[in-house]
Amino acid sequence: MIEILNGLHETINYGDSLGMRLFHNVDYEDYPEHWHTGIEVIMPMTSEYAVIVGENRYQLQVGDIAIVNSGVLHSLEAPPTGERIILQFDAALLYTLKEMETLLSLIPPVIFLRKSDDTELYRFVRERMDRIVLEYDDRKTFREAYIYAMMIEIYVKLGRNVTSQEIKNSEGGSKGQILKQKEYLEVIMSACNYINKHYQENLTLEETANISGFSKFHFTRIFKQFMNMTFYEYLNSKRMKRAEELLYSTELSITDVAMNSGFSSLSAFNRTFKSINGCSPSEFRNKLLQKLR
Questions:
Q1: Which of 44, 47, 50, 205 has its CA 20 to 30 A from that of 180?
Q2: Of the candidates 70, 148, 168, which has an alpha carbon nearest to the alpha carbon of residue 111?
Q3: Is 149 helix (H, G, I), strand (E, B) or coil?
Q4: Where are the alpha helices (DSSP H) in the chain?
Q5: CA 286, 77, 49, 117 torsion: positive or negative?
Q6: What is the CA radius of gyration of the chain?
C-alpha cells in the first residue's frame, strides 16, 4: 500500500485524481511507523485491523471507523485475512476553507468511532463513507467533487460536535448567554485562522487580541475557554508541528528548522521543543534515524 516512503515520510500517490484515493485493502502486511500530510480514513469490512499511534492501540472491529489526522506518526497491523476500506485524502483540499485548518487543530490525532456505540455521529460518518465507496467504485463523472463534498460534510459534523460540546460546557445557560458564547466562538475561530496564516512570523498575543477586537485579558480568558489551551500553547503547537515535519523530511540544520518554524532564536526553539516532546530537536531527529536502521 505504501508506494513512496522517504524515511518515515510517505508521499501519497494520488494518481490522476484531484487529491484522493480509495482502495479495498486485502494485504496481509503490516506497515511500519510513517506519516503523511493526507488524512486517512480506515474502515474494516471483514475481520479486524489495528492502528497504532504512540502508546495507543486502536483495535478496529468490522464497521468501526478510524480517522487519522494529517501529520500523525502511525503504524498499521493486518490480520491474515480480511478487507478494509482505506481512503486517503489531501488535507490541502480542506485548507481552502478558512475554518478547516483550525478545526483540524482541534481534532485529536485519531478519531475512533465504534459501530457498537451506535452514536448519531457514527451513523452520520458511516452513511457518508458508504456513499463515498459506492461513488468511487462506480467511477462516475465528478466523483472527486462528490467525495470532496462528503468529506466536507464529515468534517463540518466533527467540528460542530467539538464546538457544541465547548459551548455546552461553558458557563451559563440562558438564550442570551448562549448567543454570546457563539459570538465568542466565532471570534476565536477567526483568531485561530489568523494564527494559522502568521505563525511563522513574530506573532504576539497583544496583536492577535487587538485584531480580534478584545482586550488582551478578555481574549486570553475566552481563548483558553474554547481551545482548552492558551494562545501561546496554540501558537507553539503550530510551530512544533511544522518543526517536526521539517525534522522528519528534510536535512535542514536545527537552526534553519527553528527559523522556518517561526522561532526567533535557537535557544527558544530548543527550550520549547524539549518542554513539549521531552527531548531536544537533535535527539528527536536521532531517534527517527535509529528507527530507520
A1: 205
A2: 70
A3: helix
A4: 92-95, 100-106, 120-138, 143-169, 175-198, 205-212, 216-227, 231-249, 254-260, 266-277, 281-291
A5: negative
A6: 20
Round to whole Å and give the CA distance between 47 and 75: 18
Length of the chain: 293
User: What pLDDT is attached to residue 186?
Assistant: 78
The full 3-state SS of 224-241, as one line of letters, equals HHHHCCCHHHHHHHHHHH
* Nearest CA among 170, 174, 202, 205 for reference residue 184: 170
CA 276, CA 236: separation in Å to the nearest integer? 9
> For the chain (length 293 residues), average pLDDT per consecutive 10?
67 73 91 87 96 94 94 91 93 73 77 95 96 91 88 89 64 57 78 89 93 92 85 91 85 92 93 89 82 59
CB 41 within 8 A of CB 67: yes
- Residue 10, beta-bridge partner list: 5
Nearest-angstrom CA–CA distance, 131 and 123: 12
Q: What cell does 112 get?
A: 475512533
